[in-house]
């Protein structure tokens, strides 16, 4: 699920993110009057423990699963809320705190009192740039914890196997952001150069085409030096999401090896068959039983 | 010159020819059925529409059917061995040249026309040679030879996927070209003395008159129409199912295995339907329409089942489709002598293949065009399935369809002349094993 808030939270659905949630929210939204975007009743029913409203600059998010993924595109004040239903012990108060990346956040310890048999822990985080993304955990001390993973939308398709191309041919590397994820601001392409990543720009041999959700890098007149690891980067306001792929350049000799061995096998077979038949028919001639004579044509 | 009518002794070198037929048929039809893997790669590389790419395989298929008649004629004029070896060489050459293609037209000409010509010169002569080498065990020999189609379709799909992944489509086509050259070894096994007697001398004027007279007969026309309609849809899954599975979201090998599944049951379908029709409980035409109708239904179910996104469901439908597809192929062959009479079977078959080659040519590109228009393969498969169903319905309009007993095959007066036609020899030897069975059955009734 994608959450973000923009300055114009009330009128711009793009800021909310794409996919099923946004379209429903768009339909239910009262025109320009309220700053709240309401969820349709359907979605309310679906996500039982999810309560979220979008208010200008702030998005609420709460969950009941062990790990929640939150995708963000823009800088936002994100409010994370954890609700714990308690257990048999029914303790009067519990300490709750937040962790980021496994390290406890300073000044985040608060006492939590149960309300209607539920313990609630809420905090607003100011997510501005890449270092604010990561793994946030709300902890009910010694009782329960819940992880929120804040990240940019990840590029879905990962190509595990290397892309193969021939010397002198062209090859097209593509990266596509799934339809239910927001459109990146732009795309960049990189190639591994030793331990560094070198950015590729539109040049004689490189053709870069960016089309909203997809980006293509066409490498023309490929040579063996073009082999290596390439990265495509989807740039969002808050951070960049990358995906890598491996390009392998081979010469024509690679498939030529099995081809030539098959060719040799065919020649040997055909010759053997014809020689066998010649000797066989000569034998039959000698015995006088062969009516036909051996001939290829 | 008088020619001895030798009764071929079953066995011996005949079984070697069965092996040759097995290998060559798998390299023709098994290979054709694996081209669905290349379809996906071509669409990506050439950035052309599905319809434009579909022409490649459909030209190849149509060329194979179209040149079958030529292959038969050349065998009579020259040497069967030479024709098959040339066919093997041409089909391999076509694929080798295709690996160097830089535009679609290159593929149309090399993989389509040239390889198709090669395949046409290989298939019919090879089948006829095997049929000529056996008398009693003909059905078994030919059935064994044809079983290669299903087996190779099963094995080739994942193999082609592996080749494409390792060497891209260029390298894969080069290697396939080399593999196709093995057909030359199969051709070399044909001995000159085993000149097939089942070939029609197309040069003979009388034979041409006999063949053309078929066009004036309603049963033949109806059957030809039914088979043509069938051809429009029959090949669509072989060329588009892999692409469809990939579009639905299955990985490369899973998609390849969906196609393989159809290949496995193809074998069983052929054998089972042959065995079942031999039991004699039902008329061959009825069985043919049954299998054809079922095949049409399963083709239509293929895109529907993919809506469930369940791999198991797709495999099951593919298995069922493969079974019906193999089953109907056996029956198509068996019905032929009943419609045309034995004397005209070879000429009639050649003419039939000629007519149905148009459908083979147009069917797949039509399916590709529908995909381009709608964005997915649902419409393509539904239309293909309905063509197959239509073909099945057309065959119900054959004369005497609804009677329970087999009508007598049309009798033709024997034309005696001096040219070396096969009329006399055909009547002595009999043709397909199915025909032999049916006449025996009629005698019993």
From TrEMBL, chain A:
SUPFAM superfamilies: Immunoglobulin. GO terms for biological process: axon guidance; dendrite self-avoidance; homophilic cell adhesion via plasma membrane adhesion molecules. Residues 1-33 are annotated as: Disordered. GO terms for cellular component: axon; plasma membrane. Residues 9-24 have a biased composition (Polar residues). Keywords: Immunoglobulin domain. Residues 78-149, 153-248 form the Ig-like domain. GO terms for molecular function: cell-cell adhesion mediator activity. This is Embigin. It comes from Xiphophorus couchianus.
UniProtKB/TrEMBL annotation, chain B:
The keyword Transmembrane applies. GO terms for molecular function: monocarboxylic acid transmembrane transporter activity; symporter activity. Residues 14-403 form the Major facilitator superfamily (MFS) profile domain. Pfam families: MFS_1. CDD domains: MFS_MCT11_13. PROSITE patterns: MFS. It is found in: Cell membrane; Golgi apparatus membrane. The keyword Thylakoid does not apply. Keywords: Cell membrane, Golgi apparatus, Membrane, Symport, Transmembrane, Transmembrane helix, Transport. GO terms for cellular component: Golgi membrane; plasma membrane. The chain crosses the membrane at residues 12-32, 52-75, 82-101, 107-128, 140-160, 172-190, 220-241, 253-272, 284-305, 311-336, 348-369, 381-402. It is a multi-pass membrane protein. Belongs to the major facilitator superfamily. Monocarboxylate porter (TC 2.A.1.13) family. Proton-linked monocarboxylate transporter. May catalyze the transport of monocarboxylates across the plasma membrane. This is Monocarboxylate transporter 13.
